[in-house]
Amino acid sequence: MSLARTIISISALVAALSPGLAQADQHQDAVAIFREAVDQYDVGEYEAAYLLFREAAATYPAAALPKHKMALSLVRLGRYDEAIAAYEDFIAHADDPRFSERVRASQKRIAELTDRAESPPAPPAPEPTAADEAALAGELVASAALSDSPPPPPPTEQPATEVASEPQGPS
C-alpha cells in the first residue's frame, strides 16, 4: 500500500470515529454538569438545579435522566405546566428498560399535576369582620377563665419611689 493510500485510509478512519469521540466528550460534559445539578438540588437550590439539568440535557440530548430531574426541580418550584412538559420529554426519551418504573411514576405525576392545573383555585379567605373579631375576643376571655391560673393583672402605674439619701453630717 502506498503512503498516500495509507494517509487517506487513516484520514477516513479518523473522520468516521470523530462523531463518536465528540459524542463521548459531550457525554462526559453532561455527566459533570448533571453531578453539579444534583448537588444543587440536594441543598434545596431548585432553580439552579433546574438550569443545570437543562444544560446537561442540551449538552447530551439523548440522555433521559436530566429531563426527569428537570421535571422534579420544576415541581419543587411550583412551575407545574413546565414540569408536565419535562416529564413528557423524559418519557419520550426513556428507552432504557431501567427507566420503566420512573416512566410509570412520571405518567402518574403528569395526571396529578394536570388535575391540579385544571382545578379552580381556592377562593381567597374573607377579611375578618367586626363580629369575627368580637367572637375571637370572647373566645380568648372564655379561654382565660377556664385556665388553671388566673390571668395576670393589668399593668398599673406605680408612683416612683424616692431613694432616701444618707443623712449628711456637718461639713
Order of SSEs, N→C? HHHHHH
Q: Total helix count?
A: 6
Taking the sheet with the most strands, its summary is: none
Total beta strands: 0
Radius of gyration: 35 Å
The chain-level structural class is mainly alpha
Structure write-up:
This protein has 171 residues and is an all-alpha fold. The protein is 68% helix and 0% strand. It is built from six helices and no strands. The protein has helices at 3-42, 46-59, 65-76, 80-93, 100-118, 130-146. The protein is elongated. It starts with a helix and ends in a 25-residue tail after the last helix.
Blueprint (SSEs and pairs):
Blueprint: H1 3-42, H2 46-59, H3 65-76, H4 80-93, H5 100-118, H6 130-146
Summary of the model, kept short:
About 70% of the residues lie in helices and about 0% in strands. With about 170 residues, the chain is mostly helical.
Q: What keyword list fits this structure?
A:
171 residues; mainly alpha; 68% helix
